[in-house]
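Sequence in, structure out. Go.
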Amino acid sequence: MLDRLFRFLSSLKLTVVLLGFAIVLVFVGTLAQVNEGLYQAQTRYFKSFLIFWSPKGSGFSLPVFPGGYLIGTVLLANLLSAHISRFKWSRKKIGIFAVHAGLILLLMGQLLTDALSTESVMRLAEGQALNYSQDFRANELAIIDTSDPKQDHIVAIPESLVIKQREIRPAEVPFTVRVLQYWENSALFDSPTNGAFTVGATKGYGTSAYLLPMKTTVSMDDRNIPSALVEIVSPEGSVGTWLLSAQTSSPQGFDYKGKPYRLALRFTRYYKPFSLKLESFTHERYRGTDIPKNFASVVRLQRPETGEDREVKIFMNNPLRYNGETYYQAGFDKNNDNLPRKITHLQVVRNPGWLTPYFSCALVALGLVIQFGQHLVGFVQKRRAA
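Output:
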């Protein structure tokens, strides 16, 4: 049984089939970006083991095609099995081993990048300091315990749980969060404009606000603004219902057993052990046009636990690398010139496996040089002998 499995994994036919699946997957996933958007298509087709399809009007899904993770995992197993079964170690095959080792490292590095890397944005106004960045493609329901005057205690519930509209019982708080309704994209108004309606919240701004459900956007330049109607349920009964929306960052509060709590539906936050304060922002344009020539942010990095306090200038092609993260000058608010304080956008990237593509490409290149170099030397020696 094991021998048959090993022969199957090391088969050249399996390699051809996997490469064919990969070509189809890239083609279909690329076309899907038009209707689903870049991030949704990447998650569904390339960052999954199986691609599911749901019949219209049904509540179940069927696997219809292997995803990027499954193809990559089996391809990695195929490559390792072929090495073990076919290639015997010798000096003449050092180049082949180096090429294959580079390919294996490339596949493993991509998996590491997908699993551990994060991308977020830090939006700073001049004079403002922040110790967190936000992921504008993901959301969270935050329960904030503000009873400690020195620091807040935050329980973050990911959107994947909120969207299921079920009861959530975080171990850190003495009550249950019941999600009554969830809208993936919406807008709030002060009046019943364009068909907006009230949702029946009993506490907070939701008692007077009007909500308008909107079609989910897939554009790279737009963001979905989720909203949720949640109920806080204690052992003694219901505490109340709140309308939460990512459109406003103002948390809504209530007291329970002498402790003040705040609720907010917001973009997912990544907190840092330091803060960045925007001292100044400059934006240069090409003469006579509105085309950006150069824009830069001067930030003050402050880390109380180490006493670090220094200024750093971040501009195009010159990021800040600190604490395992890279801070790029990504953009700024379009109407900066009309604002009292200019606002900059710093893209924050954490990627523990960022060096693996460089190592793998260098290893493949070295293997090719060795392999073709050996054949070239052998050819020259035979020609001289002849």
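Check: The chain has a mean pLDDT of 88. The longest strand covers residues 259-285.
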